[in-house]
Amino acid sequence: MKAESMPVDWDKARALAYEAGRAAAAPAERVPLSVADGRTLAEPLVALSELPAFPTSSIDGWAVRGPEPWRPIGRVLAGDTPAPLTAPGTCVEIATGAMVPVGAEAVVRVEESARDAEGRVTGRPRPEPEWRMPGDEAREGEQLLPAGTPIDPAVLGMAATCGYDTIPVRPLPRAALLVFGDELLTSGPPGEGRVRDSLSPLVPAWLRRSGAAVDPSAVQGPVQDTLEAHVDAIRAGLAVADLVCTTGGTMHGPVDHLHPALTRLGAEYVVNTVAVRPGFPMLLARVPGPDGRPRFLAGLPGNPQSAVIALVSLVAPLLAGLQGRELPALPQVEVTAPVPGRGSFTHLSLAALDARGRAVPVSHVGSSMLRGLANAHGFVVIRPDTKAAAGDLVPFLPLPLYPGERP
Questions:
Q1: Which of 344, 354, 337, 350 is CA-nearest to residue 392?
Q2: Between β-strands 56-57 and 131-132, what pairing exists: parallel, antiparallel or unpaired?
Q3: For the CA atoms of 12, 18, 23, 27, what is the dihedral angle to 10 degrees?
Q4: What confidence tens digit (pLDDT) does each residue in 301-349 have?
Q5: What is the rounded average pLDDT of the residues 193-212?
Q6: Report for 153-162, 216-225, 361-370: range of highest mean pLDDT
Q7: Which intervals of the chain form a coiled coil (predicted)?
Q8: Mean pLDDT of 72-95
Q9: How far apart are CA 290 and CA 238, in angstroms?
Q10: For the whole model, what pTM was predicted?
């Protein structure tokens, strides 16, 4: 198992994690629309017919032929197939969404019409047609959404409009979490040399927001601080998950068994340490799978903020690749206060977004702290050998969100 001799540049590490995921993406599967929310399109979504498929009234009113007044000869409701309108001076009452009869020359709004003493309809059509023509929204065979599109309720509605009952999607990557550290408490307040495990509730929630499926039973720990216990726990996790995240043990201390465990499992490093502060002793490894597809292990540092930085730096790009999604570009934001650099390392500095979308640095940002993280929306990215002054535009790495969530 070959390890990197130097920490990998942060941007390169993100790209390596993403490409590793893309190369290992599982084959597509077809699922009903009812269970496709949150998945990813594995193929382009194309129109199966023209949309709309027939001339469709946009209003409640009268479909008319010839000059006014018009003699009503029927009614067309949504779902009807009307007879042609052939005689001048005739009309049919029509509902919104109903098919416009062949031969109709205009549709008059009901609120802009009147009936004379003989029941005939008068009114003036508006200059623009009051119906949608076939193909107004899409032509048959036209690509509506590309492969890699995250599926949300709007996409589901679009697919249903087109006539899809099932759609091709990427399988949800399955993730597991192993928490290392004999010093951790699983309940109650910290004290007497022991600290509360904060990563068991934190990591799975952000894995789900990044597109992974995490069964509660796949969260295990604290794992005993022995090499054999680590190897056994990792094997068990890899048996049920595409990705196993571990917390702690990424260095080479007396109870840091992760690297020897990976060697025993025949793993190959994708990334081993990243030139980023906080959180540089993160790693991503590829482990052979029994079906020929690789599995992955992401080693997150034990300090909470460092673990989250590893999640957004390596795990989120990996999951994007496994789902066939694009690696999101980082938006540029204005910082409201100076942000220092960290020498030759990239600095990820916690910040909140104000009402104008500017990044405001938060306090309590030590790598072992969660208070700053709880008040932040993401990280300002300060490139190596640079710093930011108030008013500068810099890249911003958002914390993972569910579709529709807003920072």
A1: 337
A2: antiparallel
A3: 180
A4: 988 999 999 999 999 999 999 999 999 899 999 999 999 999 999 999 9
A5: 85
A6: 153-162
A7: none
A8: 96
A9: 10
A10: 0.85
**CATH tag, 332-398:** 2.40.340.10
Q: How many CB atoms lie within 10 A of CB 115?
A: 12
CATH 3.90.105.10: does it fit domain 30-50+136-169? yes
* Fold annotation for 8-26+172-322: Molybdenum Cofactor Biosythetic Enzyme; Chain A (3.40.980)
Rounded to whole angstroms, the maximal C-alpha distance in the chain is 99
Short-list 67, 117, 112, 111, CA closest to 91: 67
- Where b means 16+ CB within 10 Å and e means fewer, 152-188 reads eeebbebbebbebeebbbbbbbbbbbbbbbeebeeee
Element (H, E) at 159: helix 153-162
One-letter identity of residue 273: T
Number of H-type helices and E-type strands within the chain:
8, 27
Picking from 190, 258, 275, the residue whose alpha carbon sits closest to that of residue 223 is 258
Task: Judge whether 56-132 and 332-398 match in fold.
Answer: no
Report whether pLDDT(1) > 60: no
What is the rounded end-to-end Cα distance, in angstroms, of the chain? Answer: 40
Give the type of residue at 38.
Answer: G
CA distance 361 to 350: 6
Instruction: Specify whether domain 56-132 bears CATH 2.170.190.11.
Output: yes
Domain assignments of the chain as residue spans, ordered by start:
8-26+172-322, 30-50+136-169, 56-132, 332-398
